[in-house]
Design brief:
By secondary structure, the chain is an alpha/beta fold. 43% of the residues lie in helices and 15% in strands. It is globular.
């Protein structure tokens, strides 16, 4: 069959990401396309990360004339998990375009899992639910044999309309052996364009890999529509082989390991470090983990010796009250201790911060500001609480959701439920804390050559602090 693959996330519709200019290839999409190609199908990909508009998809579907369109989101990139409304509109556009040419469409995404009926009524033939690769291959085989309508009831992990009613087949079993999956074939996209853009804006080239699927922790705001609470990992040996390929074949200077929790499996990091030494490769990488995991014996050393340059921690809040309400399972003192130990080891620490969780008041915000100033991470990423279907947090606030239930793009930051402060407060707070952080970082590190920048951030700090005063008299 001729199969056209794409994903609903089109970076062009996300202004914040266009400004950052740090695109990464859609791993999940490329793994699925590689599987289909390995089965003998004629495959093309429309890369939403680099496309300048949806016309890229329109041209491909008109010129390639596929027999099947697969909208397969890269669930290893947090941006696709956010279920942004701009990307839903992109998916609908692709479905309608394919439908106008009488080409069947299959969709796999977090948003389609959460809102299956609207995707089906829009015109998609089926939605893949759960881990997607095996379900996709059986679905493709059914279309290839022109028997999808009769075979679809026997394919686990599908949702579709049957006589106008929503029908779901049994749950698909998980893939236990992730090593059995092929590496994503980066030649299916314009990898040279990524290389050129990274060098232009950042002076180095970063690529991405994923070593695990799922997260076993129970943060009650974290949406897990695809993998739920599972945690499966590929072998350290395969991971190192992937790093070698990215370095030797694509000249990667740096790697983002996209896992929700990197190196959680006992003994994995030690074997990973050993395999890196065996293969004589050290590629600088960034990863995401938890503060409490970093305090386990030798974890930081294994990370450093295997090439880790930056560790992102989901710190979220400097208030223990808020962390407990989130069911985060970490303590403030663990964040401080882990940050200190990682920094002393010569690794950068970065914080994810979340404002606006239910019950958060100004004293809680003050504690978060205090934690950022005292720990002074290398980077911070600030967001506001975002209720997504399937989470306890969503169920708690769903009756308060007002004019919308999804952000438009990743910089929307709309607090969509009633909370201590109104939406405008959090927009200003976001910018205020960023300005305060940049100012303290410049001053504490005595980067006097950056004094003009320090003055700039001081002025931003004053401006946004003044704007906060009407919302809280002690701001």
């Amino acid at each position: 069959m001729r199969i056209l693959f794409s994903q609903s996330y089109f970076r062009i519709f996300d202004p914040k990401e266009m400004q950052r200019q740090m695109p990464y290839p859609p791993l999940g999409t490329l793994i699925a396309a590689t599987l289909a190609r390995n089965q003998g199908h004629n495959v093309q990909c429309v890369d939403g990360m680099m496309a300048s508009s949806l016309e890229a998809f329109d041209r491909s579907v008109e010129e390639f004339r596929p027999e099947l369109v697969v909208i397969y989101d890269d669930e290893f990139n947090y941006l696709t998990k956010m279920c942004l409304s701009n990307m839903r509109h992109a998916a609908f556009h692709m479905i309608r375009k394919a439908k106008s040419l009488k080409v069947p469409v299959i969709v796999y995404s977090s948003d389609a899992t959460d809102h299956t009926p609207i995707y089906l009524f829009e015109g998609s033939h089926a939605i893949i639910v759960g881990e997607g690769e095996n379900t996709l291959m059986e679905t493709v085989a059914a279309f290839s044999n022109e028997c999808f309508e009769t075979a679809k009831h026997s394919i686990n992990g599908l949702k579709f309309l049957d006589s106008g009613q929503l029908h779901a087949t049994p749950k698909r079993e998980w893939i236990d052996d992730l090593d059995s999956l092929p590496d994503p074939d980066l030649t299916m996209i314009d990898i040279a364009a990524y290389h050129k853009l990274w060098l232009k804006y950042h002076g180095y080239f970063s690529l991405n890999i994923s070593t695990t699927r799922g997260c076993p922790y129970h943060c009650n705001w974290c949406a897990k529509p695809i993998y739920g609470q599972i945690y499966h990992t590929q072998s350290p040996a395969k991971t190192v082989q992937q790093l070698l390929k990215l370095k030797n074949n694509y000249h990667a200077d740096h790697v983002w390991i996209t896992d929700d929790i990197f190196g959680l499996k006992p003994g994995w990091l030690e074997l990973f470090e050993s395999e890196c030494k065996k293969q004589n490769i050290v590629v600088p990488y960034k990863c995401l983990t938890r503060a409490d995991l970093l305090l386990k014996t030798n974890t930081i050393n294994h990370l450093k010796n295997s090439g880790c340059r930056t560790i992102w921690i989901g710190a979220e809040s400097g208030s223990q009250k808020i962390l407990d309400a989130m069911e985060k399972g970490t303590r403030i003192e663990q964040i401080y201790e882990a940050t200190d130990k990682v920094q002393k080891a010569g690794i950068e620490v970065a914080f994810f911060i979340q404002f606006g969780y239910t019950g958060e008041t100004w004293p809680d915000i003050q504690l978060t500001r205090k934690m950022i100033r005292e720990c002074l991470p290398a980077e911070i990423g600030i967001s506001v609480s975002y209720p997504l279907p399937g989470t306890k947090f969503y169920e708690r606030v769903r009756d308060q959701l007002r004019h919308k239930s999804n952000w438009t793009d990743s910089d929307d930051l709309d607090l969509m439920f009633n909370n201590t402060y109104e939406k405008a407060f959090y927009k200003i707070l976001h910018r205020f804390v960023h300005a305060e952080y940049r100012l303290h970082r410049i001053i504490k590190q005595r980067q006097w050559k950056k004094m003009p920048r320090a003055v700039y951030h001081f002025l931003r700090f004053c401006f946004f602090k003044i704007r906060l005063i009407p919302y809280y008299k002690h701001a």
